[in-house]
Amino acid sequence: MTLTHEDHGPVLRIQHPEDLLALIPHELGHRPRDECVLAVTGGDTGFLLLAMAQPPAGAPPEVVGGELAEALEHVPGVSDVIVVVYRESVPECPVNELAALTVQWEQIVRTVGVELLTVLLVTPQFWWDPAQPDVARTSTLVEESPVNAQLIALGSALEPPAPGDDPRWQKALREKARELDGPGSVTTPEVETRGQEPRSATTGGEPRPGADAAPRGCRSAGTPRSSGTPGPGAALPCGPTALAVWERTLQRVQRRRRDWVTAVLETPAADLRGMLDGLRDEATRTCLFYAWLCGERARAESSWLALAPALARVHGGPEGPEPAGDAVEEALRCVVAVAGEWDGPPHWESVETAYRILQVLDAVTHARADQHRDRADHDCPRSEQGHSRAALDRPRVDRAGFRPLEDPLGSEHLLSAETAATVVAALAQLEVFRGRAHSAGRLLARCEEELQESAASPVGAVEEVRRRLARQATPWWCTDPRTGWPGRSWWVRQTTG
Asked: At a CB cut-off of 8 Å and minimum separation 6, what does 473 contact?
């Protein structure tokens, strides 16, 4: 098979299955996970890739075929299809699994009227071909494919492995996750009561009581809070403090962009906790996005002075002093910019640096959530559905954010799972800023799936991004190549001053 997207453009020759497997991630921009990809001959370029969820084993072929036919309705010349099924884990019997998948897809494509050429089963390290179903081929064949080398040379859109998916960083990520629960943090659940001084005790990225609650000029419990925090009156870092910690980390990572993962992992645990706390507060989170977009922390701090009390009033918090007029104006600019209704140009240096820091925080917070879950599993039996009994019995958070005094065993894991989901939601928001709504949607779907598996409370940050996507899926600045996202490799190529 020979592919070319332009009359005089580069030609790709797909001669073997590993060549097709090499092509797919470059074309999609990411490595598929637990989904299937259909390589269809036809269309303007003679070749088309369709990504979709793998149909359940008992799904009616007519229903799946109808959805596929609808997707191919306006694609001319469709005749053949190759189905590639991606799995994150190796099936118990790959030979039987591949045979079952082949039968299933033969029935599906028959309803569409196209011919099934083959079905490939792919896991991160091995893949199987029906031509030799009992032979587990290694991913090295795909990496060494000439197609892979050619696409890398041409400038691939493939996402590099995130730190959480890279085996080189697993030990360091687990150690950093344990640091977040080290000295200065406690592991008892957060507790709040109405009409009294809040009693707060949380893990890692959550607020800490007493002298640790406001280590660097953080606001007191009586300061207005915004939604998305653990509860009314919880002691989170104030917006300016969290913004300062983030800016300090951004500057260090920018100076060490060649080893940015190490630079983030060397951030003191206290700073990481402050950064996570800032993300969990709605007003601070919004101002962080604004600081990264405009590249000016001072403007974000000014907007926080008006945005924080405004959100506190919206959510029933105490009345505070009226902010100055210039702070109100900056807060309006902040909200409009974060919503994507701004011509830009964004400060891509800050946005791209923040994205990489969030990738490391994503891996660390998920490692921490896994550690907390393991402890909860050890101390508390699980239901048939896999949820911890403590999680199922846990009283839900009401609209005001109140958590009952008798929070059962297992809430430690739930709180860390909610923090991890907030980090992923922030990554999704930055994907929106890049103009990649589909990637943002995949991240949000991942958030919701993980929260459901943990029986955790809904996270406000996820809903915020969904609302912005529904209102303005493509930011204004992305419609102009001069102000749109410059691409992933742009950040690495920049020189430090």
From this structure: 432, 437
Q: What is the pTM for the complete model shown? A: 0.66
* Phi, psi at 457, each rounded to 5°: -70, 155
Pairing between β-strand 47-52 and β-strand 36-41 as defined by DSSP bridges:
antiparallel
Identity at 90, one-letter amino acid code: V
Helix, strand, coil percent content, the chain, rounded in steps of 5: 50, 10, 40
H and E: helices and strands count for the chain: 18, 8
What whole-number distance in Å separates Cα of residue 356 and Cα of residue 427?
9
Strands 12-13 and 2-3: antiparallel
Contacts of 269 (CB under 8 A, 6+ apart): 176, 179, 180, 182, 184
Per-residue model confidence as pLDDT tens digits over 247-285: 999 999 999 988 999 999 999 999 999 999 999 999 999
Distance between CA atoms of residues 450 and 52, nearest Å: 20
φ, ψ of residue 252 to 5 degrees: the values are: -70, -40
CA atoms within 13 A of residue 492's CA, in its CB half-sphere: 9
Strand order in the sheet with 126-128: 47-52, 36-41, 80-86, 115-122, 126-128, 137-138
Tens of pLDDT, residues 311-341: 988 888 777 788 999 999 999 999 999 999 9
Whether the bond between 160 and the residue before it is cis, its omega within 30 degrees of 0, is no
- Please report, for residues 104, 300, 337, 431, 465, the alpha-carbon distance to residue 468 in angstroms, rounded to integers and kept in the order given: 39, 19, 11, 12, 5
Residue with tokens 């090295």, as numbered in its chain? 140
Measured N-to-C along each axis, helices 269-280 and 348-379 cross at an angle, to the nearest 10 degrees, of: 100
The SS3 assignment for 204 reads coil
